[in-house]
Amino acid sequence: MSDDGITYIHRLGGEGDVISTLQTLADSHRYRNPIILTRLARVIAGASGGGNKDAPLFELCHLINAADAAGFHGQDGLLTFFMAPETVTPGHFKRTFSECSEHEQWRRGGFSADSTHVLIDYNDATFNIHYGRMPLLAALYEFLSAMEGWTFFSEFNDLLTEMLAGSVTIEQIKVASNRVASRFRKYRHTHISWSKHEERFDKLSTFLNDHSVNGQWTISDPNIFTFWLLHSTGQEFRGYKTVFDAFVVLLSVIQKGQVSLSVQSAHVLGSDKDQGEIDPSNMEISEEPIVEWENPLPFFDQGELKNIKFLKGTSERQPIENLMKYGPYARRLPQAFLRLECFSPIQSAITNDLQMKRGTERINERLSCDDAISYDNKIQVYEDIAEHLRSLQLAVWYVISGSEKPNNHDEVLQHDAKIAFESLRRKGFETPNVDEDGRSKFSLAGEEIVKMSDQIKRFKDTVEALDLISSEVFASDKEKFSCQLHKIYGAIDE
Hints:
By secondary structure, the protein is mainly α. The protein has 22 helices and five strands.
């Protein structure tokens, strides 16, 4: 029933006030028709009105104008009109407006009502509102009034008072609805993850709909690359990294919706291409849901930890920055991620060369992608860093174990840990004798090191299982990237 609307917002990454306010409306049981709050959820998300996401707000302002003309004047009058009915139905509004017309009780001229709708004559234009539409508009009014703990209510009424001053024109209606829409968009961006990226997501959703199978989206290595091929000659999605990041953010929004709903399988988002609407689907993605991830590297930048050289910047940290940043998304999209790691730097270098006007010879050389690190070499870099992390784990264990005498089982471990510690000739590893606070810091660092090691291993296992480190896969991708970079940038002449 009304839970459908709440579920819809959840799957778009909605949280906090938008969920609680919608739940309050559902709990009132005033909107008996279950479709009302489902449609309201679409309006809240900006997924209604076709090409004009704010069209329902424009309708609402016309209805408020009609209610005012029917005698429901001022703040109290509007509250009575919209929120007094125990059950909100088209029939309730039909009776209200019909009686007003029958008894000629309109406060202002230009209004009439018949069996199906209210008609407003603005002299230079007319507007009609069907009774069947009014319960949704009433729900929208109630939501706008109640959102953010009724803090918008006063501003909302001030806008309506200004709109209704004097002889109301259609221009006044437009101005008021646009101002409400502006405030509502800010609300969406605050409380619904989808809305923060809606312009970019609209393009992604169109592509995914066009490439769906049985209405199900597939966010995959091939689809990400295909999207880049189709859009990279434009401006918004020229960079491969931009495309990869956009799909990762989309996946994170889907994941956020999964977490909110506490479901065990991934759900996808689709859209009605004809109406420009977004619509969470009940179809399932075969891949397992992505677990919540927090990049472990920033941990080592905190406070006194910065004074301990766990990782050398250029050789040990920089090569795994992206792998730790994207976490499970790198494993979910292994080939797309390898393309990001190995070919995106080539494209970035071309962009920098062009911006700095460094000449054409080097740029033309870059277009061949001969400078790209191969996939097998990239994995080898990860493995080398993983070996360092294993030594770090031993060294950290040596510090946190302190002066405790090892048992027979730990003697070998203690010996290996001592060797690992003494081999680390870097700041912070001068002595294993640290105070309790120091041992605590090393212990927490050890947890993050284990997390990094696991990420590298799991990514390596995924890549090897798919045979992505083969020379043939890299050679094929190199040719594809070189071809597309030539299309994007062309042959650069002096």
